[in-house]
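Q: Could you write out the predicted structure for this multi-component system? I'm mainly interested in how the pieces pack against one another.
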Amino acid sequence: MSTLPATEAPSPAPGPTVVVRTVPLDTTDPLLSHLPADHRPDDLLSWVRRGEGIVGWGTALSFESRGPDRFAAAETWWREVARHAVVRDDVGRPGTGLVCFGSFPFAADSAEPARLVVPSTIVGRRDGQTWLTTVSLDPQLTLLETPSVASDPEPPGDVAFSDGDVSPADYAHAVAEAVGRIAAGEVDKVVLARDLVATASGPIDPRWLLRRLAERYENTWVFAVAGLVGATPELLVRRDQGLITSRVLAGTIRRTGDDAKDLALAASLARSSKDLEEHEYAVRSVAEALAPHCSSMNVPEAPFVLHLPNVMHLATDVAAVSADDASSLTLAASLHPSAAVGGTPTARAVELIGELEHMDRGRYAGPVGWMDAQGDGAWGIALRSGALDPADPSQITLYAGCGIVAGSDPESEVAESIAKLIPMRDALASE
Ligand SMILES: C=C(O[C@@H]1C=C(C(=O)O)C=C[C@H]1O)C(=O)O
C-alpha cells in the first residue's frame, strides 16, 4: 500500500498525472482467467503468449488519433503521460510500472481512430514471475484487492456467417485485377484482404475468444485492444532493453490435417520460388526500416517454416541492437506497413490496395500491442483477428488477406484467405 504525496491543484502540467503502483503477485492462475466478467467487451486488454504477457481492464486514460500523424501523436501523448506519472514499481522489468496498450488502423484515411489505453488494472507475467499494476488518477491511490479468477465466459451460441464488404467472388476479382497490374509492372507485390461478418445468437464475450485462441495457437500473440481481438503469428517489432526483434512472415500453405502430407508441403513451401520471392520482399522491407535505428542486425539467410494449426508460413526472425532511443512504437510506425500486409514498393502498393480492395481495413493489419514508460514493448500485426461491433455485442467482423505476386491464382488466394479465417471462426464455436 502506498501513500504518495498529493500533487498541487490545479496542476500546471499539460498532461494528466497518473499514479502507478506495481507489486509482485503470488499466483499461477492463467493470466486470461483474471479478465473480469462484468466489464464491457472493449474494456478488456490482452497481449499473451504461452501463458506470459499482460492483461488489463478498466480505463485510467485513453487517447485517440487519426490520419498520417496518428503514430506521432500517440507517441507525443504517451511521452507526456510517462513524464508526469508517479510510479512506484517493486518489480522493475519490461511491462511493469506504467504501460499502455494500443491498436492502430492500417490506413491513414481509415474511419477508425488509433487507440491507446492505459488500463486501471494490469496483471502481468514474465519468466514465471507475476505482478499486479494499478493505475489511478487519484494521488491517494490505494492498492486494489488481489485480482481473483473471474467466472468462466459464456459461449456465443449459434453463429451465422455472411459476406462483408468484400465477398469471396469480389476478392477473386480483385486478385485477378492485381495480377494484371503486377504483370503491367505497377508493383511487385500487393496484399489484398477481405472480410466476413459473424453474427452470434448471444453476446460475444472476448474472454471466450481469447481463451480458445490461446489454447490452440501457442505460436501466436493473443491480443485484445478496444474491441479488436485475435491471435497474430507476426511480430512487427519488440524492443526489450536495447534488443530489437521482429518476426516476418510471408509465404503461406494451408494445412491438410495429415501430418506426413503437411511435412511434404512444408518442404515444398521452403523451395517454392513464388513464396521465397514474396518472403524476401517482406524481410527486406523490415530490415531496411530498422537499419537507421540499429547498430548491428542479424538477418538469417533462409527462412524457417512456422507451423500453425491452420496454415504454415515462411518465417524469418530478425534481431538487432538498438542504436538510439526510438521507442517500440516509433519502430512499429517506421515498419508499418511492411510488405507482409502492404506490398512492394510500399507507397504504390498501398495506393493499389485503396483502389482494388473496396473496404476500410479499420485496425486489421495495423500494429497492435503495448509499450511501457521506457519505450520497451511489443507490437504485432493485427492479423487472424476480428473487430467486435461496438453497437451490436453479438457481431464481429473477421478479416484475412494474402500477398499477391506475379504467380498468384485468384481461386488459390480465396482458399488461402479461408484458411486464415479459421482461427477466429473456430474461436467463435461454442462446442
Ligand atoms: C495478411 C495476412 O497475412 C499475411 C500474409 C501472408 C501471405 O500472404 O503469405 C502471410 C502472413 C502474413 O504476413 C492475414 O493473415 O490476413
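A: Regarding packing and overall arrangement: Residues 191, 193, 234, 249-252, 313, 340-341, 383-384, 400-403, 420 surround ISJ (CB under 6 Å).
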